[in-house]
Prior knowledge:
Transferase(Phosphotransferase), domain 1; 2 domains
Amino acid sequence: MFKVFDEQGINVCFGVVRDGRRHFIxxxxxKPINIVYCNGADAAFAVDCLKKAAAIYRDLDHPSLIxxxxxxxxGGGFAAAFEWTDAVGIEPLDSPDYMRFMxxxxxxxxxxxxxxxxxxxxxxxxxxxxxxxxxxxxxxxxDADKAVICxxxxxxxxxxxxxxxxxxxxxxxxxxxxxSGAVMDEVTNVYTMGATAFSIFAYGNRAxxxxxxxxxxxxxxxxxxxxxxxxRQQSIAQLIAEWNEAKRRRD
Length: 251
């Protein structure tokens, strides 16, 4: 073992070396240091969530997603194993890692956002809704210049009805995720991707003066985070098409 992550989330995680190769292990069943279980969550809940998540990682395999290896019951809990990545997280806000990412050249951040959009087009095509996605789910590989998605544990088959979205960051949670019994689907994913655009290109600020790209791109992102579902792009494919068209425009 060469690394321990034991201070946040509902799982304890490790970096380990086995047969000369590095792996990332996510273990459910031991309480992280700083967590206060709430909303019915406990160690048993964490185990159940990770068991379900293992199938999601397997089903959503993608070049921008951390590579899932396998999972098993072990040590009185449940462990999921992934290939190790040297990508760096961009959260928490205002941390050195966050500021390093935010200060990257715009073209590199644009490419990273394209990676994120491409993955979520894949998510939509596989019939999932991206719940609990936020900037803490994003890492960046500075050697390969690419985004890496690292946490999709709460993604659900769409349409999903429930309140699991309230686990996410308030900056990324759509209005319907806060309403018990509301439907969450690809239009919900559109909102999440719009919120991601504001996080990457405007430090999370949705005011026009905070936006670092052209006005056409601002309009696409602003449309995506409309409170009214009918006002948003109705698919990730539509969002990508409008985003790419706006890239070609100049103010």
